[in-house]
Every structure is written in structure tokens, then in C-alpha cells.
Amino acid sequence: MTRHVLAVDDSRTIRDLLHLALTEAGYRVTLAEDGLQALEVLQHQTPDAIISDINMPRLDGFGLIEAVRRIDGHRATPILMLTTESAPELKARARAAGATGWIVKPFEAAKLIKALQMIAG
Amino acid sequence: MTQTDDPLAAIRTSFFQECEELLEQLADALADPAFAATAPDQVNAAFRAVHSVKGGAASFELDQLSAFAHRFENTFDDLRAGRRRVDPALMRRILPAADHLSFLIEAARAGRTCVDRSDLLQALDQSENPASGDWFIRFRPTAALYATGNEPLHILNALLELGDARIDLSTETLPHLSDINPEEGYLSWQLRLPGTIAEQALRDCFDFVEDVCDLQITRAVGPALSQAKATADARRSAPAAGDGPTVRIDLDRIDRLMNLVGELVIGQSMLEQTIAPALANSHSPARTAFDTLTSLTSDLQDSVMAIRAQPVKPLFQRMSRILRDAAAVAGKEATIRFLGEMTEVDRSIIEGLTEPLTHMIRNAVDHGLEKPADRRALGKPTCGTVTLSAAHRVGRVLIELFDDGAGIDRARVRAVAVDRGLIDHDQRLTDAETDALLFHPGFSTAQAVTSLSGRGVGLDVVRAALSRLGGRITIESQPGQGTRFQLSLPLTLAVTDGMALRSGGQILLLPLASIRETVRVRGADIRRLDDGTELMQIRGQLVSLCDVAAVLGLPESTPHHDHSVAVLVADEDGRQAALIVDEIIDQRQVVIKGLRTNCGPVAGIAAATILGDGRVALILDPGDMVRRAGSPAVPPSETERLAG
Predict the structure, then answer these.
(1) Distance, CA of B272 to CA of B280 (rounded, Å)
(2) Chain-chain contact of B208 with A101 (C-beta, under 8 angstroms)
(3) Which of B42, B280, B325, B506 could form a Cys-Cys staple with B29, CB 3.0–4.6 A?
């Protein structure tokens, strides 16, 4: 069964890169531009995993994770954070908010897919 | 590091400097009680130290050193991989090997070869307990692992991709169905994987869950299993060697920076005097800007000082080894105890202390501590204790060396002093005066010249070395209880807070840390004793007077001290004296410029500085002034400066 991933990032370039990497690896991809848009998507769809940026307008990545973890049916959805640096405090904050894993930008497609497999099979 | 035409030679010099640091790190790790428990931090530190020695030695083709380090390193590698654990037997083998490593480094530095001690390495290998090789993993997810959307199945699948694995699910902690909390994690897994898999590959599978599970990864050998947890922790802490990245800087460059900051301070105070009118208004833009500049200069100064400051710990550790060697030669048992070893002191002072402290430690073992049999007879523990302590005290650093030995044999000291004509046979001395004889040049009570502290070099050499650093030494002894040496040193040789005074037409500076209070002198407060000693009554207490102008040989402007100012100063021991000066000018920070290389020791003077207007001013030595107070005025050139 084709795996479905929701990718959230306010940068069009990153969204395009994510889309390319994920579709090439055989995933079905839905894109969102920020946390609020992602939450709208989650009202109608149940992706197997979410990949999200941290810094975004309206609702940032931390806020998105916290919201997702409160929605029945999405509480256990794996969420991969895209961080710009591997700062331990960022990881710690993402983990505290409920993130499943993280990947450092700029990412290599192979690493992204590997991380995704680790959290979503 | 000195400039040399051969860049490789310079790097080689730097390598041997680094080796000293690495040996200290190794000694540090081995001495830590946690090492005996195979604690990962200490094992890793030891491994890295030996590993770095090996790497450098190989680059310079120091084959004997690199070969030894290579095999020595293996022991620590086995420990950190959980293949072995530290036990007392291994500890007894590691220590001599570590010693030999330092001998090899010394030999390599001198271009010599060293005796072959591969027997030490064989001894290390003998307690070898080779692992079967297979990886053993215990993995117990916590509730947080599930709460963050992680799934053990994906992790197990990822591990299976690495190689054939045997996976056992443990349901031991699974409660009765009615007691199950669906948010809680109850399951754990035990896996066995081929030893050919790289440990990092295994670790990568747990990258996202390290903090939300109990994880133990180790080589699957019977006794090593209990070490598994430590090994797992080891990886987490492995990269955190120090407190952050470090960079090695040429000391000359720091000194140049230090000098520049000193000049900057002087320049700033020149500027302050020049633009004083503009600064008078505390709300003027000039004032605000100047205050900012002042605060920045001060921060800059502190930062530069901090670069040069180092904890005394490595110095103390070196003493630990000297004590061990000295005790072995003297046939005595001794341990060393450190207090306040993280006290930070300027690097130049630490360097200057190595020689005197070495001598004092040897002295303590050789002359202070009794032989084990004698100690037993006295009801003391057979093993003597030497305590080294460091602490900051009134702007100086106080280093104490205390042994619990026999104390000073004053009768014998006296006999030797009479024998050598240092004192008359009927001269009466207080205990303190007798003890002070030990500092007399060439004084030694050792019956035989030993390879350690004999050689006719006495405490006078120690005192001279400390004096060069602007330090003082005092001695205190209790018969049967031990001897205590107190070393008082400046924190830095660079900057001091001082009070500017005028005396005999000159501007002088007094270190602020030594000043207790200042009082206006009234002639009626002064008592003159028959021997010419002058005392002054301050708050009902009689304090010795010291006329600064007289001590320095300056023209006395106020012969009867009327209308002059008394500055009450105290030395490290709390002894006080009232220094008589004409007036107090202000308080300022000054850059210390040494005088000793140009003028040698000068009575009452510690150093010099340059004032804001470019004039040179002398910095007074309060301790020396206190000692001079109360003694009849003697021309400075005829008095030998006491211990500092």
C-alpha cells in the first residue's frame, strides 16, 4: 500500500524538494504551507507520517506537533521535524512537544527516506 | 613555542607540550574513583589521551612510543567497548604502564630510546577476557517512546536489515489485563546480532529513541553483560571530552594581547584626564560614552586574564607522582590529598610554582614523614598524608602544604645552626625564629645527602623561587603532628587595583586588597618607644607605624607626621601596620611592570606602573612594609628582604 506523507514547510523550495524526494521513493505526498493549513488537511486525511518545518507563520512546528498529539486518531502519527541545525536544545524542545524524530536541513533524500522508514516503516 | 626555521620541529615541540597535558588527563582519569568502576567518562578520557599520544608519536616516527601507546590503548578500548572491566588486578597493571608511557615520552623528547617494557603490556593482556563478538541488545521502550509516535516494530525491522538477529520478547513486566494502562510501555526486547556489524549502525537505529527508552548495547560475553549499561552511556558521553571546543594559542600572543590591554587601560586613563571637563556632567553624551568604554575595557581585561588563568589541578597532580616516587626511594608510605585544586591562578605563576613545590614535596617525604615502623610505634597510620591546598585570599592565592609527619626537630635545627655559625650557642630564639633558620642558604639537616632532597639544596632555594613570583613562604610546625608551609602568591603578575598615595613628593601605589582603613594622623596619637619604634593608637589599638618616605629613602616632608594620613594595611597573616603618607590621591587600576629584571628586589617595593600622564610610579609591597614597621629605620640597601 502506498504510504501517505503530509509535508509542511513555508518555503516553496523546500516543499518542492520534499515532494520530489518523497514521490521518487514511492510515497504519496500532501503539501501544506504552515501549521494551520496542516491541521486543516488532518481534518480530512490520515497520513502515515508528517514531516514539518519548525519556523513557520501562523502556527509553527512545535505548535503543530502539540495540536496533532491532542487530536484523536492522530495522537500516534509519527512526526519528523526539519531542523536547520542539530542544536540539542531544539531537539529537546521538539521531543518535549512530542516529535518522533528529526532531520537536519539541508537534507539528503536518502537520509530523509531512511529517517521516515525508521518512524513509519 | 618559539619561532624556528623548521616548521616540523615546531610542531614536534608542540606535540611534546601536548603530551604533558595528555599525561595529566590520563592521570586524572586513572585517579578518579569512577575509573575503578569502569565509568565511561573516565575510561573514554584515558583512551583518548593514550590515543592522541599514539597518533602524534606515529606522525613523528617515534616508533617505540607509538607502538607502546598503541598496545596500551587497546586495553582502554576493550574497557570502553565493555569487553573488559576494571578490577584491582588490572588497575595494578595499568598504573605502571601509564608511568612507562611518560618515561617513553621523556625519552622520545630527548631523542633517546627507553628500556623495552613490553612485559608491562603482556601483563595487561594476560587478564584479557576476549569477547565472543556477538552484539547483545536490551531495549525497553518507555511510555514516552509511544507518546512521541515511535514504533518499536520499525526499529526492530531496521535492526533485522543489518544482519541475522535473534529477537526475544520479554513480557515479565506485563501486568494483568485489568491493570494495564494503555499509555504505559510494558514490553522489552533482547536481541543478539552478529559481532561483525558496526556498533554505530546499531546505534543509528535507536537515534530517535535514545532518550525515551532503556538501552544497553554490548558484546555478548557472560561477565561483560553487567557492563552493558555503562557502554550504552559511554557512547552518549563520548564526544563530550571537555567543556567545549578548544584552541591552542601561542603564549607569546596572549602576553602581547595582555600588554596591549594594559596599554589600553593606561591610554584610557590619559584620555580621561585630558577630557575631564567634558566628563564632569554625568548626563553628558561624553560621560555616557566614556562609561561604556570603561566597562568594555574592564571586561576585556577580565577576559584576557581568564585566558591565562588555569586551575592548579595539573600542577597538584604532577606533585602526586613526585610524592609517589619520593616515597618509593625513601622507603616510606605516603598519600597526597588535594583541596581546592580547581582554584585558578595565572599560568606564569603555576609554571613558577612547579620547581619549589617539587622540592617541598620531596622535603616533606624525606624529612617530614616518618618511616612506617616509626609511625606505627607512635600510633599513627603507617601511611603518611601530605595535603596540598589552594584558595583565594585577599587578592592573592594561598597554597598550603601540610604533612602529618614528625614536625621540625628544633633542637637539631639549633645544633646545626650553631655548628655552622649561623647563631651563637647561647642565642635565644623563639620557635618561629628557629623554624625560619631552615630558610637560611645551604641549611640542611639531612644526615645523608639522598637522591631526593639532599644535594645541599635547601628551603632557601624555594624561598628565592617564590620571591621571584612575588610570593612569600611561612612555616609552622607542631612536634609529632607535622609541618605546614604556607605560600602566598599574587593571582596574576599583570594588573592590580591600587590606591594612589603621595609620599616624599612621589606618587606611590598601594594594592587595594591590603588596605583596611585610612585615618588622619594627630601627633598626640603617636607613641615613640626607646628603641625608636613608633606606635599609633587607632581605635584604642596600638599599631606599628611605618613611614613610607623613610623606608624608601625619600625626603620626609612632615617630620612629626602631623597632618599626614595613616593607611592601615594588613598582610596575609592579618598582621597590621599603619603606613604614614602625605595624602591619598585616588583609587585606580594599574598595570604592573616588573622591576626585578632591571633593579632586583627593592625594599618595600613590589613593582612599578605607568600613570595616566605617562609618569612612572612605584607599587608598594604591603607585606614587606608590615614587617618593616616597628623595626628601627635601617637604610633599605642594608636589609635583606625577608621571604618575599
Answers:
(1) 10
(2) yes
(3) B42
